[in-house]
Amino acid sequence: MANDPHVTAAAHVHRHDHPHDDRHGSELSEMQLRVRALETVLAEKGYIDPAAIDALIEAYETKVGPHIGARVVAKAWSDPAFKKALLEDATKAVLGFGVINRVGDHLIAVENTPQQHNMIVCTLCSCYPWEVLGLPPVWYKSAPYRSRAVNDPRGVLADFGVTLPPGTAIRVWDSTAETRFIVLPMRPAGTQGWSEEELAKLVTRDSMIGTGFPKQPHEVK
Length: 221
Fold this sequence. Notes:
This protein is of the alpha/beta class. It has helices spanning 30-44, 50-63, 66-78, 80-88, 90-93, 130-133, 138-141, 143-151, 153-159, 196-200, 205-209, 217-220, and strands spanning 7-10, 106-111, 116-121, 169-174, 179-184.
């Protein structure tokens, strides 16, 4: 951990042949070509169902994603009873938001306050709350983020353009295959009387990871 006295960390126990050499003019990368070749072989041998894979990818790209998390956050901002339920048992609380699959057995919501800012990482691999945030961003899976988020969280936040008051503590939550996290960011000022739909437009993916803030009212109005 860094020497910052306001930083703490919460860790939890965590197609066979090479493609033909006809790639001239192909827009696919070497890795994408290899993946396609492996997929073809596995499908031909009956180990995978391409239609099922396509359906799964389509689901995570269109049916679940940050918009689910944004609705969860917006409801927590406007409904004290739901906020209490979310912080007590997020796994149960999000079930009514169209979550199609529980990737993690345990989802925990952590609330940002003026005294504490929360940030999510997975130091061992890239465990992520897919069910409410969709596919993880590339940077979340990168080695620099995974190591620096724990050792230099203020520096990482600065890279994202996030500056916190010196007295605000930072807590880094380490995800695992069994336990995932979602940050409940602070509600922007000037949103009194806004509907849940309006509030959801303020919520960004990064604000639910802890590497960003929600949008300000003037950015969506």
